Amino acid sequence: MPDLTNAVLGFPVYQLRHEEAFEFYPLADELAVRANLASLGVAKTRPKFTAALKKLDAALQPALGSALTLEIKKLDDERDLCYRALREGVAAQRHVVNTDSRHDKALQLQAILDRYKTRKHLDYLQETGTLRNLLEDFDAAPAKDYVEQLSLTPLVEAARVKNHEFETKYRERLQEALTTVRANIPELRAETDSALANMLQVIRGGAAEEQQACRDFLVEYAALVAKCKTLIAQHKSTGHKRTPAAPPDGEAPAQPVA
């Protein structure tokens, strides 16, 4: 599985900007939880990754506390309403008499929503990335056609707009907060990157042994990496300054992520 190997071992997480990494880490961990990999040896490595995440989060919280303004909360509440309206819109179509297969199409969209049903437990950046991924799944065929045929496009676009508004404002606040953090964020990130790499090596080993859960995880992880690269490209195109973390010991200096 060469493509997945490149995605897992070739993607330099340390090159991510801090705010990009803070979104990427928990989404990768969520994939591991969803894949139920505990019985495949990952239980020995994932605790180190989650512990590193907690340390990183603890270091950021004092600064983030001042960044979570009423404006941020208002935008989050607004996008939650849009997300709820989208779910209710899909649910309503599931109860329509099976004309033009509307019921079946709604069930397909519901299956996409169900993949992200843990969204209410996520932090702000993780929620942003998860909702973005959900909407991207709705943009892919055949879901995009179903959305149009069920007249759900306005609900999808409203959720997209609100998620973008929230992300823009939150990243602005996060950048401000990072300038006030006294903890050694690069050192904590290096610890997190190392723990993630160890967990991924174990998962890759399981995939090589044809353990289906590991292979399924790698497929989703490769998709997460691809979406992350797209996001990085968007940031570059808008002129965001890149400030990647230092590379782990023994690795080459950071180069721009392709």
Could you report the average pLDDT, rounded to the nearest whole number? Answer: 79
Classification by helices and strands: mainly alpha
What is the element string, with H for helices and E for strands? HHHHHHHHHH
Helical percent range? Answer: over 70%
Distance between the termini: 21 Å
Low-pLDDT ranges? 250-258
Shape: globular
Give a short account of the largest sheet.
none
Strand content: under 5%
Supply the number of structural domains. Answer: 1
Tell how many strands the DSSP assignment holds: 0
Radius of gyration (Å): 19 Å
Count helical runs. 10
Record the SSE blueprint.
Layout: H1 2-9, H2 18-34, H3 46-67, H4 70-94, H5 102-115, H6 124-139, H7 143-149, H8 153-178, H9 185-208, H10 212-237
Helix pairs in contact: 1-10, 2-3, 2-6, 2-10, 3-8, 3-9, 4-5, 4-8, 5-7, 6-8, 9-10
